[in-house]
Specification:
The complex is a heterodimer. By secondary structure, chain A is α/β, with parallel strands linked by helices. Chain A has 21 helices and 10 strands. Classes of the chains: A alpha/beta, B alpha/beta.
Chain lengths: 584, 603
């Protein structure tokens, strides 16, 4: 499906609205095109020797009645058009949103939030504008053209030849306008977004700019980008001015009058017909001007539709199995079988994971250690099916996770991320994020387990405190404990805890440790951590490096046989260097 | 003129209208010739507007009396020629206005941007990015649009005057009918404007909700996925999205209502003109051609009237935009280059002499700091969170100016240095890492764009980042998302570290530079650094034992003061704050503590 098809599919879905719209549009245009006849009649009457005021009054009343009907019909059709536009926008936004939620993590790793937002806000608005007033203008113009021109032919076919002769010029002008404006409009949208991104980065990154004394380079670059934008905008303005399509219409009106006057003097045409004719011609002025605008709006609107559609269509889904197997969440063996993985759909030159084999009994606590880039987080992302492995399988309870229902799998896996993301809602809402129907008691219960209850209660609004940009700023340790509570509430069978220690004092450390200890009970837990206490007490420690699993086992064994592990532990803990026993 | 702000910022100020206009005209002065052309064009087109209808009127008169073609010919031809003239004027006018407007927009944008680069960091600490951005993008555009709007306003005003005058000249009686409907037009225009504004406000607010919800869903997508919340999110979004639709419908009522209503009024005008005009003709007070002229002039009178009514408020909002842009340009700058800046190579001797600092009036964050750091010395600063350790780093780089006292590098006060010269020789690796979108390589080379690949690889080795960079999809050429998205906090810190090292600073400040890096990697970085730092001054603010113990000297801070100084062994012996800090911050990195905490797990 092309983006145009997609867009028009959305547009055509609203049949009822479109039908009402068309009916009232017809009434509107018909009454508009009839009015010049009444005007002509009045002049016909005025030109007579025996002028009848009664006839003039009657005709003037016709004008007024037609005017009222016209205004009402115009209002209804304009309103319907606007509603149609917003309805389509609403549906498109919703579809876009829903599609985004289904995208793989890899998509979000790569995409810029600003870019997504631009498509969700600016581009949908452009589509909206294309429909109303864009399409409205287009409809009005075509209907006016059909009605008025038919009437003109009826009055004087010969004089209408002039219009027919002018038509090709008009079409060529509009076509040229369209062709020239297209690339410029696209360039404008792109350049605008480039400039905004640039600006945003230089504001959020101002410290780094100062730090490296790059102000002048930044200004130069910004100057370059704004200059580019200025050139594009100027070019666009000049094209618009040059191809101002009304000009042709005005010229045709004038020429028609010129020739019409000649026909009147020759007695071929009556004077009141000429008046009607000229007023009919004038009904074309507005639409021809609007068509020029429609062209622009069409281009921008279509470019916008394309941008939304392209992002929507980016094939970065983790596929759902056709017949998903349900997993009750029962504990069981987790089996990593010959797992290899590279980013970018396996095209990346380096393996992020290389042949990982490990069996983990249900209920174990697994600590994963290794340098940044050793593959710890990637392995966990595979377990959650944020990505699929390039080779190998992961089985839980003997079921390949790729055969499980995606939401069913993730429902039973809880995650506490290294950088905790909280929504700008109340603390309560954040804790209850995964279980919206949780009771107040449940929420407080898990908050206590996570050692978060204490500090939450110390806030003025307690659990109703709003966090994030619009509310209270929490420390890293506090955020982490809320995340622990959030994960505990859904009571997952498998828990993944990405716990990079940053500087915290011993008291907070102790609380977090206790919270973690609470989390570990009755579930399989993977902890990516540098906390030695946690590592030491894990059932299985995985030592990773360069995407490979170097070794795994318990602390007591690893400290004796694995140099990397011993090195790490030694340096980290200030222990006196240990004597390695001979052998393994 | 009355102006209202949605919300005022601390740097917002009020300007008088004359000040604003004066300033705005300053942007126009380079284009005086073009501006005068615009004015001439406006007046010319206003006057020319009334002639084509008059030609029609005269021709009608001639035609009615069954005259010869030759008698009609001049008027018919005049109509055609005048139409062409009007067209040319409008095209030229459009082009000139575009050129000038775009130049002014650019000028304002770049000026605002330059002023931003000079603003104190305090400004960015307190103002939201979105608001600043909107002033540069939206407000500057609105400001420059003023030119367009003002020229249209003036043009419409002129047309209004000429049309009305001409009507009076032709038939003053009939003119009263036209003037009679003017108040209704004005009222409708103003009332609908008000309703539109109200409903638009609601609609915009609803759109804001949709955007916020969108933004948060995208930023928090991994959480949503982890909790399998997609369905719920979809439902929630549907509700918010539908609300927007509802408000849009309400607004559509007002927005789409105004033109049909105007149209209705214009028809009443037509009705009035034909009826009253006819009665005048019957009384021999007018000729049919006068009615024709009035009908042709009616819309040339009504539309400018509507425009003038609505553009007046647009001009008001333009003034407000002007004020917002100028406020940001004029926001007070404290930290500026001294008149005779010192530019020289720094050796690296740093001294703090009786330094006091406050960000908020009355709250001192640093009190009487005195310290000497010798060239090549490595010191560590420790203390509880919020005792002013980071402030020391910021002051040294002159991100902020001190309140009292002086900070000297090589005996010269930092305020006397050329700011660029000063900052380029000090490297700061801070806890909050900001990376730009672009490749890893571009980020590392940010401060040193001409660095060779060999140099880059050297610093990568020092910070032990080779392994993870190699693991990235395209290695050094991997494109990073906004703010380095896609990398872990630790990885971002390592890149930021490499970036600073590459610029080869004389003084290096590490403000919890490796807090998010695992201890083993940190230790490896530390070992590499020891060699690298041999002849550099370094200030290390850290929470880990490994980093501190290698320092020549440890400075202990408490509540903005230096309370202890010495090496690890001495300080532990003193049993003061350091030994207390050791108990709270560092002890849990030691072996005994680990076995102690193990009890928690074995419960």
């Amino acid at each position: 499906m092309s983006y145009k098809k997609w867009f028009f599919k959305h547009l055509l879905k609203e049949r009822l609205l479109s039908t009402i719209l068309m009916i009232f549009l017809t009434i509107y245009i018909a009454t508009t095109s009839i009015t010049p006849f009444f005007i002509g009649d009045i002049f016909g009457e005025l030109a007579k020797e025996s002028r009848s005021f009664a006839i003039i009054l009657r005709t003037a009343l016709f004008i007024a009645t037609a005017g009222v009907i016209r205004a009402t019909a115009d209002f209804i059709q304009s309103y319907m058009n606007e509603v149609l536009a917003h309805k389509v926008t609403k549906n498109v936004t919703e579809e876009f949103y829903n599609d985004l939620l289904g995208k793989s993590q890899e998509f979000f790793d790569r995409v810029k939030v600003g870019d997504v937002m631009a498509r969700a806000t600016y581009d949908t608005r452009q589509m909206n504008i294309f429909i109303s007033p864009g399409l409205k203008f287009l409809f009005e113009a075509s209907f006016t053209f059909i009605f008025s021109v038919s009437f003109m032919i009826w009055i004087n076919p010969k004089l209408t030849l002039l219009l027919a002769a002018a038509l090709p010029f008009y079409v060529i002008t509009v076509y040229n306008y369209y062709r020239k404006l297209g690339p410029v409009s696209r360039a404008q949208v792109e350049q605008n977004s480039v400039m905004n991104t640039r600006l945003q980065e230089s504001i959020t990154g101002i410290r780094v700019i100062r730090n490296f004394v790059k102000e002048n380079e930044e200004i130069e670059e910004f100057d370059f980008e704004t200059e580019k934008l200025r050139e594009i905008n100027t070019k666009r303005g000049i094209i618009s001015a040059k191809y101002y399509p009304v000009s042709i219409t005005i010229l045709i009106i004038a020429l028609s009058f010129f020739w019409g006057a000649n026909l009147v003097t020759n007695g071929v045409m009556t004077l009141d017909d000429l008046v009607t004719y000229v007023f009919l011609m004038m009904t074309l002025t507005m639409p021809t001007w609007q068509v020029g605008r429609v062209v622009t709006q069409f281009q921008i609107g279509m470019a916008a539709a394309k941008r939304i559609f392209e992002m929507k269509e980016r094939e970065e889904f983790v596929p759902e199995p056709s017949t998903p197997i349900h997993w009750s969440g029962a504990q069981g063996l987790i089996n990593f079988e010959k797992i290899s993985f590279s980013y970018n759909g396996g095209s990346s030159r380096k393996k992020a994971l290389d042949n990982i084999n490990l069996q983990i009994p249900g209920g174990s606590t697994v600590a994963i250690i290794g340098n940044p880039g050793s593959g710890k987080s990637t392995l966990m992302k595979l377990l959650m099916r944020l990505y699929d492995p390039t080779k190998g399988t992961i089985n839980i309870n003997g079921i390949n996770i790729q055969d499980m229902c995606l939401s069913n799998l993730r429902e039973h896996i809880g995650v506490i991320e290294q950088e905790v993301f909280l929504f700008s809602k109340t603390i309560q809402d954040n804790i209850a994020y995964g279980k919206a129907d949780a009771t107040k008691e449940e929420i407080e219960g898990v908050a206590k387990l996570a050692h978060a209850h204490e500090f939450i209660s110390s806030f003025e609004n307690g659990y109703e405190t709003i966090v994030g940009e619009r509310g209270v700023t929490l420390s890293g340790g506090q955020k982490q404990r809320i995340a622990i509570a959030r994960a505990l509430l859904v009571d997952p069978s498998i828990l993944i805890l990405d716990d990079a220690s940053s500087a915290i004092d011993a008291e907070t450390e102790r609380k977090i440790q206790t919270a973690i200890a609470n989390v570990l009970k009755n579930r399989t837990t993977f902890i990516i951590t540098h906390r030695l206490a946690t590592i030491k007490n894990a059932d299985i420690i995985m030592v990773m490096r360069n995407g490979k699993l170097l070794d795994s086992g318990k602390h007591e064994n690893l400290i004796l046989r694995n140099i990397d592990y011993r090195n790490l532990f030694e340096r980290f803990s200030e222990l006196p260097p240990m004597k390695i026993q001979e052998g393994k | 003129m009355m102006r209202s702000f949605d919300k005022k910022e601390s740097y917002d100020r009020q300007y008088s209208d004359t000040d604003l206009l004066k300033r705005f005209f300053k942007y126009l002065t380079p284009y005086l010739l073009l501006v005068s052309l615009i004015i001439i064009g406006i007046v010319a087109s206003a006057i020319v507007t009334i002639f084509p209808p008059t030609m029609v009127q005269n021709a009608f008169d001639v035609l009615e009396s069954n005259a010869e073609w030759m008698a009609v010919f001049p008027f018919a031809l005049g109509y055609v020629l005048l139409s062409i003239l009007l067209w040319i004027i409008q095209v030229v006018l459009g082009i000139i206005v575009t050129i000038v407007t775009q130049k002014v927009i650019k000028q304002i944008q770049i000026e605002t941007y330059i002023s931003l680069q000079d603003h104190d960091l305090m400004f960015f600490d307190t103002e939201s990015t979105g608001k600043i951005m909107s002033r540069i993008t939206n407000d500057s555009q609105e400001l420059a649009e003023m030119l367009n709007i003002v020229s249209q306003f003036v043009s419409n005003f002129f047309i209004l005057i000429t049309v009305l005058t001409w009507m009076f000249v032709v038939n003053w009686r009939l003119t009263f009918v036209t003037i009679g409907i003017a108040p209704f037009v004005m009222i409708v225009a103003l009332v609908f404007r008000k309703i539109t504004r109200m409903t638009t406000g609601d609609w915009r607010a609803a759109i804001g909700e949709v955007n916020a919800s969108f933004q948060e869903s995208v930023s928090g997508i991994s959480v949503a996925k982890a909790f399998g919340r997609e369905k719920k999110s979809k439902e929630e979004f549907e509700v918010i999205n539908f609300d927007t639709f509802r408000y849009a419908k309400k607004r559509a009522f007002a927005v789409m209502g105004v033109y049909p209503l105007m149209d209705g009024i214009s028809v009443i005008g037509m009705f009035g003109i034909t009826l009253y005009g006819s009665s005048l003709i019957l009384g021999d007070l007018a000729s049919p051609s006068v009615i024709l002229l009035f009908l042709l002039l009616l819309n040339r009178f009504l539309y400018p009237l509507v425009r003038v009514a609505s553009q007046y408020s647009t001009i008001q909002s333009g003034f407000a935009a002007m004020e917002r842009v100028f406020s940001i340009i004029d926001a007070k700058k404290e930290i500026t280059n001294p008149p005779d800046p010192v530019i020289k190579k720094i050796e690296g001797k740093v001294s703090f002499e009786n330094v006091y600092q406050q960000y908020v009036e009355g709250t001192l964050v640093l009190k009487d700091i005195n310290m000497e750091i010798q060239t090549g010395e490595s010191i560590a600063i420790v203390g509880h969170t919020g005792v002013g350790k980071t402030t020391i780093a910021s002051l040294l780089m002159r991100f902020y100016d001190i309140y009292k006292g002086s900070i000297k590098i090589d005996g010269v006060d930092v305020r006397d240095y050329d700011m660029q010269c000063l900052r380029s020789q000090i490297g700061l690796v801070s806890q909050d890492v900001f990376l730009f979108s672009g490749t890893v390589l571009e980020n590392i080379k940010y401060g040193q764009p001409n660095a060779t690949l060999r140099e880059v690889q050297k610093v990568i080795d020092i910070v032990d980042a080779k392994e993870f960079i190699d693991a990235l999809p395209d290695g050094l050429e991997t494109e990073l998302g906004e703010r380095g998205k896609g990398l872990s906090a630790g990885q971002r810190q390592m890149i930021s570290f490499a970036r600073t090292l590459l610029s080869n600073p004389k003084i290096l400040i590490l403000d919890e530079a490796t807090a998010a890096v695992d201890a083993y990697t940190e230790w490896k970085i530390q070992e590499a650094l020891d060699k690298l730092l041999a002849n550099r001054t370094s200030i290390v603010i850290a929470h880990r034992l490994t980093t501190i113990k290698n320092s020549d000297r440890i400075i202990v801070m408490d509540q903005g003061r230096i309370v202890e100084e010495g090496n690890h062994v001495n300080l532990m012996g003193e049993e003061g704050l350091y030994s207390e800090l050791y108990e709270t911050y560092f002890k849990h990195q030691s072996a005994e503590w680990i076995s102690e905490i193990s009890e928690v797990f074995t419960d």
